[in-house]
Specification:
Layout (H helix, E strand, L loop, with lengths): L1 H6 L8 H6 L2 E5 L3 H4 L1 H12 L3 E5 L5 H4 L3 E3 L6 H14 L5 H7 E2 L1 H8 L4 H8 L3 H13 L3 E5 L1 H4 L4 H14 L9 E4 L6 H6 L6 E2 L3 E2 L3 H11 L11 H9 L5 E5 L3 H4 L3 H9 L3 E6 L4 H4 L3 E4 L9 E4 L4 E5 L12 H11 L9 H11 L8 H6 L3 E2 L26 E2 L18 E6 L24 E3 L1 H7 L6 E5 L4 E8 L7 E5 L28 E7 L1 E3 L5 E3 L8 H4 L16
Parallel strand pairs: 1-2, 1-5, 2-3, 4-15, 5-6, 9-10, 10-11, 16-20, 17-19
Antiparallel strand pairs: 7-8, 12-13, 13-14, 16-21, 18-19, 18-21, 22-23
Helix pairs in contact: 6-9, 6-10, 6-12, 9-10
The structure holds ligand MGD (2 copies) and molybdenum atom (MO).
Length: 579
């Protein structure tokens, strides 16, 4: 949303290769070492070549440990930091005046908006010293080239779009976009998030990010598909959930997601799903969501058995080939969707992946010059590739450096807002959630094998906080938020700061983290604030065999048998009624 608002397309502007020769890499809310190891490899190559790496993260992550400087920022305060950096850069005249005049608009208003954002003011909010802010501002502005990379520490907040705009403003200010070695780089979560967007899996866009509100675009697709294209955008997930709540949506078809465990405030999500007339789930595993479904479509063909393409974070469309044949009569997602359409009376042919790709080429300029043959020979191509002779595009928005810039990039002044939920006497800790290297999202795909590091969920808590609460390393404690509660073993760790605790959401069958998280969403992007929920921690007293009250100290994971029957642990009963 942020990138589209400023540049007209929602994609990272630079290439992995830009990390190799940039002077400065600023990572904000991104644990690249654990969540994007391939990209991290490119970043470390840059560091090896002399790039300065600065990491802004509330936790001392593996990524932060590799940085020249780690700024341990308070959760949800990134706009305060970005505005203060801009304040210093403008105050000291270090911004790229030529670029700002030529390629941007709204500078005066933006400069006025950061006027009050002194490093002192930001320091009080972020917990980062004013000196560190001054110094970072100077180093970022004076670096000949610089890339800002970010992920969920920025985008999983109730003011996610503002968070992103604050970072874009900084890059515009210093001319750090649209040229080699400089750029704005959101790392895509899954292997094909970018590809999903490219295909038009967004409520207000058609394939190639073409705008649904443009009559010419609708006309084009309407002719190609032989059906009228509705003018009004569809619903994003937040809107759908609202519609279910109000009885305006009665059926849901879920493909390749496990929302009952991955959505924030999962007790509420479960309640919504139970109220549906029809829930259809299409997955390669029988997930907790599938267990609730009226109908399950087994998509038994996995990535390793499929043909197609993936688009990665640098817009590179890459050919994937089936490495093995799918078992028995297993069918892939494309076949299932097409067959369903046929049952519904539409005359869809059962197509091969390449035919779908060729249709994409026909209807979108970004893909026009790509063929399966080229993708294979040239190790993927970066869109836009407007015609067959085109080599692909490494750097987006080079037009901003032209003599006469036709479409200027606007500054968007943004104000800091605290997380939706503040700590209070009753809920004195801020819980932030995220990932660990050896596990994947809700664990459906990563918990099926046994791994020596598979110790289950634990909560990271600073030793100082643990001492204050009288909690020992390995002890199982209760965690309570306004939405739910659960029990989890703790690990004392200085990777978090006092007052902040960290959990993953990788083991929902045992520890259902999303019972705690808050479903406050950004009204524009629809993303929930997974990164900030106020919680209270309580010792769990148990009665021992001889009648004593002791704390329940367990160093191993909570076993499934211990938690079965407690709905709060997320072992979900099947649906009561499916009428
Ligand atoms: N191993 C592994 N890799 C994965 C995944 C996985 O499950 N496992 N999932 C994939 C997916 S879907 C995604 S979207 C990506 C996500 O990739 P990342 O976004 O890198 O992963 P997270 O751990 O969710 O969060 C990143 C960091 O944000 C920090 N953070 C939290 N709150 C704030 C804040 O307010 N400000 C700042 N500056 N930082 C904050 C956290 O401490 C954390 O280190 O990973 C992908 N890669
Ligand atoms: N607390 C907390 N919650 C979070 C987050 C967080 O940081 N903290 N992060 C959020 C983010 S960024 C994300 S992306 C979501 C992820 O949430 P989900 O996408 O719901 O989680 P996954 O476990 O990745 O589920 C993917 C499903 O797709 C299935 N699948 C895999 N391949 C195929 C296939 O080829 N075809 C079909 N049909 N199915 C397939 C898998 O079996 C699995 O069930 O979680 C969100 N939830
Ligand atoms: Mo994600």
């Amino acid at each position: 949303m942020g990138l589209t608002a400023v540049f007209g397309s929602g994609a990272g502007t630079s290439s992995y290769e830009d990390f190799h020769h940039t002077a400065f890499i600023l990572l904000v809310g991104a644990n690249v070492a654990e969540a994007h190891p391939i990209i991290f490899h490119h970043i470390m190559k840059g560091v090896h070549n002399g790039a300065e790496l600065v990491v802004v993260d509330p936790r001392k992550t593996l990524t932060a440990q590799k940085a020249r400087e780690h700024l341990q920022i308070a959760v949800g305060s990134d706009i305060a930091l970005a505005n203060a950096l801009a304040h210093v850069i403008i105050r000291d005249g270090l911004y790229h005046k030529d670029f700002v005049n030529r390629a941007t608009e709204g500078f005066e208003e933006y400069a006025a908006s950061v006027k009050t954002w002194t490093p002192q003011r930001a320091s009080a909010i972020t917990g980062i010293s004013a000196e560190q802010i001054e110094s970072l501002a100077h180093r970022y502005a004076q670096a000949p080239t610089a890339i800002i990379g970010w992920t969920l520490g920025i985008t999983e907040h109730h003011n996610a779009v503002d968070n992103v705009l604050a970072l874009i403003n900084l890059a515009l200010l210093c001319g750090n976009v649209g040229r080699p070695g400089s750029g704005l780089s959101p790392f895509r979560g899954q292997n094909n998030v970018q590809g999903g967007g490219d295909m038009g899996a967004l409520p207000n866009r058609l394939p190639g990010f073409q705008d649904l509100s443009d009559p010419a675009v609708r006309e084009k697709f309407s002719r190609a598909w032989g059906v009228p294209i509705a003018e009004q955008p569809g619903w994003d997930q937040t809107r759908m959930f609202e519609a279910i709540e109000h009885g305006r949506m009665r059926g849901l078809y879920v493909i390749g997601e496990n929302p009952i465990q991955s959505e924030a405030n999962s007790e509420y999500v479960r309640h919504l799903f139970e109220s549906l007339n029809a829930l259809v789930v299409q997955d390669i595993f029988l997930t907790a969501t599938a267990e609730m479904a009226d109908v399950v479509f087994p998509a038994r063909v996995s990535f390793a058995e499929s043909e197609g393409t993936y688009t990665n974070s640098e817009r590179r469309v890459q050919r994937v080939k089936a490495a093995r044949r799918a078992p028995g009569q297993a069918q892939d997602d494309l076949w299932i969707v097409a067959s369903l359409a046929r049952k519904m009376g539409h005359n869809w042919r059962l197509q091969e992946a390449e035919e779908v790709f060729d249709e994409m080429r026909l209807l979108t300029t970004n893909y026009r010059g790509m063929t399966y043959d080229r993708l294979e020979k040239e190790h993927g191509l970066q869109w836009p590739v407007p015609e067959e002779g085109h080599p692909g595009t490494k750097v987006l928005h080079e037009r901003l450096w032209a003599e006469n810039v036709s479409q200027k990039a606007p500054f968007n002044p943004v104000e800091w807002m605290p997380p939706a939920e503040q700590v209070s006497k009753e809920y004195p800790f801020l819980l932030t959630t995220g990932r660990r290297l050896a596990f994947y999202n809700t664990g459906v795909q990563s918990n099926v094998y046994h791994h020596p590091h598979n110790t289950g969920e634990w909560m990271e808590i600073h030793p100082q906080d643990a001492q204050m609460l009288g909690i020992e390393d390995g002890e199982v404690i209760a965690v309570v938020s306004r939405r739910g509660q659960l029990e989890v073993p703790v690990r004392l760790s200085e990777t978090v700061m006092p007052g902040t605790v960290f959990m993953t959401f990788h083991f929902p069958d045992e520890v259902m983290t999303n019972l705690l998280t808050i479903d406050a969403t950004d009204p524009r992007s629809g993303t929930a604030e997974f990164k900030a929920a106020a919680v209270r921690l309580e010792r769990v007293a148990v009665v021992t065999a001889d009648g004593d009250l002791t704390s329940n100290a367990l160093s191993s994971r909570i076993r499934k048998e211990d938690t079965d029957g407690h709905s709060k642990f997320g072992s979900l009963p099947s649906r009561v009624s499916s009428s």
